[in-house]
Specification:
Chains A, B: Pfam families: F420_oxidored. Chains A, B: InterPro entries: NAD(P)-bd_dom_sf, P5C_Rdtase_cat_N, STEAP_metalloreductase. Chains A, B: This is NAD(P)-binding domain-containing protein. Chains A, B: It comes from Arthrobacter humicola. Chains A, B: Keywords: Oxidoreductase. Two copies of one chain form a homodimer. With 213 residues, chain A is an alpha/beta fold. Chain A has a single domain, classed as Rossmann fold. Chain A is 36% helix and 20% strand. Chain A contains seven helices and nine strands. An eight-stranded mixed β-sheet of chain A has the order 3-2-1-4-5-6-7-8, sandwiched between helices. In chain A, β7, α6 and β8 form a beta-alpha-beta unit. In chain A, α3 runs parallel beside α4. The termini of chain A are far apart. β9 of chain A pairs antiparallel with β9 of chain B, so a sheet runs across the interface.
């Protein structure tokens, strides 16, 4: 049985799959490009299955490890094949033309837009939008386990995602309903502009975001 | 010469004053209540001057360590007395009735609303909205110096606030123009709901927010 399907074969797919495998989950990689999906699956180790997005996802949790526009397209295309699934939206809808705003309007979020496109029987959960890929592969930042901020409207779906995150050695923080994705996406947008800003010489798309105590 | 005027005599005034004094700055406390301002000044140590908000602030940097509505009122009342000053807005405009939204509309921020009320010759800088009072007094969170996120439109004002923050043993992070306050306020709103949520037993208005590496 497959626990987790990851749509995508890039750096975020690699990072999330690495943590899931560390947590003992079974992982399926579905990419647009069959060769790249096969290569990533092989790199991750034995037992990782793979295929293309022409196939229906097998996992109960489906992580959309693709950019925002592609995430919307994947959900629309799969349609009813996602019924009963927990869909994890990790996207940051940054306007990369201006790098001065999001491409979603104030008062909404990428996760809410993705949820609008999902079938009624699926639950969309925001997670992993503040964890850069390299920190997921490393499994830590600043010597601490990663904090993963989670927002979602369905308690069971939030719990399923939290459970996987805990298994992978990270700290799940369920911050509230799906609309809290607005604030999660907004803050990560700011952190992304800092990575791109040469004044922050130490920040190179490799920082973590931690609630300390 | 006074470097820093703090408007307010509550926990945030205490925290920011503690760090400023640790950094060797001279501090003035102006409260609505003369007795409370005097008590806080005495608690902070010798050399801290005090008075009421009936007096014009002496510091080049004026920190509004009061709630959002009071911050707007202070700026309006002072008017031209703030010309030439760097005004630090630390507020979080949370709707404490619902605890489910901010009281400012999406697409704006408390800092921008305060700036609308300030005289043309003053510069408003957002800072300290993610640092809880206790962590400022302690000067650390999780064993690390505090990160202080800063947003402002005037480079000199941002630099002056950064300099004070560095002197006080904290890490200044100038994230961008004043409108980035929207994202800073939005995220802290989420962190505040977590402090109030009994599911986060460890979070009691005492956590820090850190960019790790």
């Amino acid at each position: 049985m497959t626990n987790l399907t990851i749509i995508g074969n890039g750096n975020m797919a690699r990072g999330i799959a690495t943590r899931a495998l560390a947590g003992g989950l079974t992982v399926e990689i579905l990419g647009q490009d069959a060769t790249k999906a096969k290569e990533l699956a092989a790199e991750l180790g034995t037992g990782v299955t793979f295929g293309t997005t022409a196939e229906a996802p097998q996992g109960g949790i489906v992580v959309l490890a693709v950019p925002f526009d592609a995430a919307k397209s994947v959900v629309s295309t799969y349609g009813e094949a996602l019924t009963g699934k927990t869909i994890v939206d990790i996207t940051n809808p940054v306007n990369f033309q201006t790098f001065d705003s999001l491409v979603v309007e104030p008062g909404t979020s990428a996760a809410e837009e993705v949820a609008q496109l999902a079938p009624a029987g699926a639950h969309v959960v925001k997670a992993f939008n503040t964890t850069f890929a390299g920190t997921l592969v490393a499994g830590e930042s600043g010597g601490q386990p990663l904090d993963v901020f989670i927002a979602g409207d369905n308690a069971d779906a939030n719990a399923a995602v939290s459970s996987f995150i805990s298994a992978g050695g990270m700290r799940p923080l369920v911050v509230g309903p799906l609309k809290r994705s607005r604030e999660l996406e907004g803050f990560q947008f700011v952190l992304m502009t800092m990575q791109a800003n040469p004044e922050f010489a130490d920040f190179n798309w490799d920082t973590g975001l931690q609630v300390t105590k």
